[in-house]
Specification:
single chain, Rossmann fold, five-stranded mixed β-sheet, 12% strand, elongated
Length: 186
């Protein structure tokens, strides 16, 4: 089955929305999932579309940015379709995973996303090290540590560890850690 997905970011983009649907229909798409949802919102029709696809189906989109938020998101979608045995065609990039060349292009996009991620993590690691060396980085203060005195007060008032954890929105193990540290002279 040939399945299409169309999306615009706002309901004001009526012409682009209708154009995508018309283009997909001209290509012989049998079922179109379409929505008007921003890049940061939930894409319920994309989720429904990905759930719908089966082995041998082909998903067609007019542009990659209509399907994915980022190259990392494309990797997730591509991997999910691969596991299902479905193909993907992205018209603006000429990606068609039913052909060896199209599959190679999709795999290059996935490889570039992985490379971008590794570069980002490396730059982050260098930045954190520089901030630590300058005394400007302390990391995240653990939530439970900030609530240490409240844990002790509730415990002295007779609250059970599970009640303390629920009231302070921390884990039971954090409650036990605080109680243990309070008993240990240090």
């Amino acid at each position: 089955m040939i399945v299409g997905y169309a999306r615009t970011s706002t309901s004001d983009q009526v012409a682009g929305y209708e154009d995508q649907i018309a283009h997909l229909t001209r290509l012989g798409v049998e079922k179109v999932f379409a929505e008007q949802a921003s890049a940061v919102g939930e894409w319920s029709q994309l989720a429904a579309c990905l759930d719908f696809l089966r082995d041998g189906d082909t998903l067609i989109v007019t542009r990659l940015d209509r399907l994915c938020r980022s190259t990392a998101h494309f990797c997730e979608v591509f991997d999910r379709l691969e596991r299902k045995g479905a193909k993907i065609r992205v018209l603006d990039l000429g990606i068609d995973t039913s052909s060896p060349t199209g599959r190679m292009i999709a795999e290059i996009v996935v490889a570039v996303a992985g490379f971008e991620r590794r570069l980002l993590l490396e730059r982050q690691k260098v930045g954190v090290a520089a901030a630590k060396a300058a005394g400007k980085y302390r990391g995240r203060v653990p939530t439970a540590r900030r609530r240490f005195n409240e844990v002790l007060d509730l415990h002295q008032a007779g609250a059970r560890p599970d009640e303390i954890a629920a009231k302070l929105a921390i884990s039971r193990s954090s409650v036990f850690r605080a109680l243990r540290e309070a008993r240990t002279p240090g």
